[in-house]
Write a structure and sequence with these properties.
Largest sheet: 7 strands, antiparallel
GO molecular function: rRNA binding; structural constituent of ribosome
Order of helices and strands: EEEEEHEEEE
Protein name: Large ribosomal subunit protein bL21
Keywords: Ribonucleoprotein, Ribosomal protein, RNA-binding, rRNA-binding
GO cellular component, one term: cytoplasm
Number of helices: 1
Distance between the termini: 13 Å
Oligomer: single chain
Helix content: under 10%
Subunit structure: Part of the 50S ribosomal subunit. Contacts protein L20.
Shape: elongated
Length: 102
């Protein structure tokens, strides 16, 4: 089993070939290829974490689609002053399919 821990969208994700992940929005069109920065690589019993060895590793992904996350509601309220403020937010996201770890 080969998998990698990659830095993507401000977080670290565990990926293997064929996985689909959702990260913060990445520029580009659907079908574009994206390279992700590996932090750790596990190939069976061999674990690679040295920076000079990870520089040779490429984790590629294909952009599937752009989407928006679930809506969150933000409410600010101060007691006895009549202050109320309501706000909503939906995060811009991108779905990626991992195509290769080499």
């Amino acid at each position: 089993m080969v998998y990698a821990i990659v830095r993507a969208g401000g977080r670290q994700e565990k990926v293997s070939v064929g996985d689909t992940i959702v990260i913060n929005r990445v520029a580009g069109e659907a079908g574009d290829s994206i390279d992700l920065a590996p932090v750790l690589l596990v190939d069976g019993d061999k674990v690679t974490s040295a920076q000079n060895e990870l520089a040779k590793v490429k984790v590629t992904a294909e952009k599937v689609e752009d989407l928006r996350g679930e809506k969150i509601r933000i409410l600010r309220y101060k007691n006895k002053t009549g202050y109320k403020k309501r706000q909503g937010h939906r995060q811009e996201l991108t779905r990626l399919k991992i195509t290769g770890i080499a």
